[in-house]
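User: Okay, second chain of the day. Same drill as before: sequence in, structure tokens out.
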Amino acid sequence: MEPQPALAGITVVDVSTLFAGPLAATILGDFGADVIKIEHPVKGDPSRGHGPAKDGVPLWWTLLGRNKRCATLNLSKPAGAELLKRILAGADVLIENFRPGTLERWGLGPDVLAEVNPRLVIARVTAFGQFGPYANRPGFGTLAEAMSGFAAITGEPDGPPTLPPFGLADGIAAIAAAQAVTTALLARHATGRGQVVDLAIIEPILTLLGMQPMVYDQLGVVQARTGNRSVNNAPRNTYRSRDGKWLAVSTSAQAVAERVLRLVGHPEVIAEPWFAAGATRAQHADLLDGYVGDWIAARDAADVIAAFEAAEAAVAPIHDIAAVFTDPQYAALGTLRAVDDPVLGPVRMQNVLYRLSATPGDIRWTGPRLGAHNDEIYRDRLGLNGEDIEKLHADGVL
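Assistant: Same drill. Structure tokens below.
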């Protein structure tokens, strides 16, 4: 008998758009939730027009829309708001990322929805949260990467702050939102009631900065940009091999640092008093980088990796995405998964986020076309007849 996915029986209604909210819903769908994606009848989710496409198929949407049933609905029309209430009456989770006050303006605020369905978990994912001086500002993940302190510490010491070339803050917020929803669902088992999740995209990325807030609070120290180096250990950098390939070395553990310096032929520095702690090793990064960099530069990447592995020292090749596709560890884990798309055929994408031994996740289908499941949602779920649906289409509601 096939195991039931972890979130089987949970219905998630996703009315959010690019990128954090929809990805949170994707993660929940990957683990068995029935995700109903509600999109504007004309505009759809912006990810349908974002980035590259092949044969008219938007690749970002192919990933972001996987495991979702897609229905169209104009929530700004009163009839659309009423239909959403009917859908939510039998749902478990709503994910939205409109500016604060938008749902309330449409008559869909949490107080109203709690009357419709007291067990509903409402996840509100916005740039700045539901209150505070910035709450009503438009915002994207880029602003979170800037405001959180992330960009300030990223880049070379004499260069500008550096932003990531992908949706880092949005992605982190999406994972956090999925975890918050499952936490709220677990709490519902005890209370019998849903609750509101208020997730500001500026916050999860700040959590990942670790001890920086405490270091500033207790010591008044603001971390500066150090490029690929770390203030907490050395050697820690990227190094180029003889055959022109880049490798990353980390020595967060003292024992690993000692193994690396023995390997590269400089065991004498291990006896230095400053070598005994990561922070003081970091103060001698020029010396240590020179030793490690010169040793790696004299060897091909494959030989460097083999030697580090034999010495039980930490090294990794710096992959581009093409190299990820051929890496044997990713292949063993099944990190990239081929999924059949009705137009593209097999398309490889990231697999589910983690492996559960008893209730594994799965990718059942790729992102569907706009409104692909209107009949399933409105005819089968809500009981509307063909005449009702035709009129709603004519009125611009569907």
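The chain has 17 helices and 13 strands.

User: Thanks, on to the next one.
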